[in-house]
Design brief:
The protein has one helix and three strands. By secondary structure, it is of the alpha+beta class. It has a three-stranded antiparallel β-sheet, with no helix packed on it.
Length: about 55
C-alpha cells in the first residue's frame, strides 16, 4: 500500500523483482496516473541510480 499525499492507489498493474507499478488517481484534479516505486524501502545507491536512469529514459 502506498502512502503518497494527494494520490489514491487503485490497483497494481505490475509487480517485478525490484519495482511495483500502480494505477492511481491524483485527488486534486481526478487525473489518472501511473506510479512506479522501488520495492526495497532502503535501496542501495546503485538501485537509486538505476531507478533514476529509467525515469530519464
Amino acid at each position: 500500500m502506498l502512502n503518497l499525499p494527494d494520490y489514491e492507489e487503485s490497483s497494481i498493474i505490475y509487480s517485478g523483482h525490484r519495482t511495483l507499478v500502480y494505477q492511481g488517481l491524483e485527488q486534486s484534479n481526478k487525473s489518472s496516473v501511473i506510479i512506479k516505486v522501488l520495492r526495497n524501502p532502503n535501496p542501495t545507491f546503485n538501485e537509486l541510480v538505476r531507478f533514476r536512469n529509467q525515469y530519464s529514459a
